[in-house]
Input
Amino acid sequence: MDIHDILEGYSRGKLDAEEAERLLRLDFLERIGDHTLFDHARSARRGIPEIIFGESKEPTVLAQIVEVVMENRDLLIVSRVTEAHYKAIKERMGDQDEVRWSERACMIIVDRREQVPKRGMVGIMAAGTSDISIAEEAREVCQAMGCKVMTAYDVGIAALHRVLAPLMEMIESGCDVLVVVAGMEGALASVVSGLVDVPVIGVPCSVGYGMGGKGEAALMSMLQSCSPGLVVVNIDNGVNAGATAALIARRAGTWGSP
Output
């Protein structure tokens, strides 16, 4: 819960004063084992769910972190994980249904919320099939933050006509912001930005051949775009693209109930 959710819950009688005060006072660091110093207030300050980077962590260590963190929250995302991480977390958490494994996004979502307030709409485009895993990262984060998401995959400029119909549908549906994931030379982000009147977040993807093929060429291309309104996150950073898109959409959007 962020600060707004806590205050709203108190005003509606869903939280008593003692519980609201406890949640607002979670502004402290907690030592987990001999490996982690966790900031419990980060998600409340930023309005972004806690997202733990799991790739370099041992499954048992990650499972311990997740168990402790979930003692004081109802939503947690773990990025860049394997099935071994998922099994360790399920075992540690008692094999609960609230733990979900998103294979395409390589993410684990632990969600105890009974209802998710819906605010804003995000469109996510992936240039090629190889870019989908990064696009799925962005999608999972956006949905966890309460945004409606429209997706269009394999719509890159190698066959430019593929992008027009889904792009038109996203704009006509009222998307507040677009996320464009592209590898190779990353040109799709500039093309899309030149056709729409909403913010575009470019995500260069580490897909391509030879020099610059690890995402560097796509990153430089997007950074040098001649289309204003395009901003760029780091290579393969679908997490940050999704979080930023959701923050924009929730401010701008009117979809669903507040």
